[in-house]
Amino acid sequence: FRAGDIDTGYLSRHDPQTLAESLHHPDAVYVHAIAAAVAGQAKRRAEATVLTTVPTGWRNVPNGPQFATFSADGVELVVRYELTGTALSAEVGGTPLGDLVLRAAAPDRVDIEMSGVRRTITVHMVDNVCYVASALGSSTLVEMPRFPDPESRNAPGSLLAPMPGTVVRIAVETGEQVAAGTPVVVLEAMKMEHTVAAPHDGTVGEIDVAVGQAVDNGTVLAVVEKSG
Asked: Residue 45, SS3?
């Protein structure tokens, strides 16, 4: 391609997906991950409507670094970083990066100096996907949610405890047909009873607690399998 030895059938003979793969420096994804994390912080600051001059994650008594988690080609990268003035301390995937100086940070561009080499890194965010490019190459990083949705980790129809409490009554049996709104489990919390009801018509597939059992917020109490 660089030699100009191509014709109009070039793309039909080569997979465009393969052509788009980056030929970058082996450390590029680490540098790009920290740039994506810093750009994300700058984006949140730009969108803030209150306390706009306070850095993201500021604490009057610092208790740990900021962090963000990305997926790069199926590999999870946890970025941890602390910024003091322009001095940036960071590690990616448990690997400490060299001496870093953050010259400037914006939602779409990060100016960073690493081991005496200054680089401008562009960041384009589309939802939770970060397209990052620099002289080192390009990377596509998918930012993972900091707090995964508990629903995604449980079986469909799972009934979760809305707060810590104690099970005082189980109103159904496994295999019983129930209608939407039917009480399934009753919890006692803060001297009040809280009824957890079936979210839809269906069959009680399982009951995961017993009367007298203490449960935490988010504990699966039962599963109601949806009819049909």
From this structure: helix
pLDDT in single tens digits along all 228 residues of the chain: 677 777 777 777 777 666 655 555 657 899 999 999 999 999 988 998 888 888 776 777 777 788 999 999 889 999 999 888 788 889 998 888 878 999 999 999 999 998 889 999 999 999 999 999 999 989 999 999 887 666 666 778 899 999 999 999 999 999 999 999 999 999 999 889 999 999 999 999 999 999 999 999 889 999 999 986
Q: Is 1 exposed, middle or buried (0-12, 13-18, 19+ CB in 10 A)?
A: exposed
- With contact defined as beta carbons under 8 Å apart, do 194 and 165 qualify? yes
Nearest alpha-carbon partner for 90 in 134, 153, 37, 132: 37
Domain 10-143: CATH architecture, name and number where available: 2-Layer Sandwich (3.30)
CATH assignment, 150-226: 2.40.50.100
- Domain locations in the chain? 10-143, 150-226
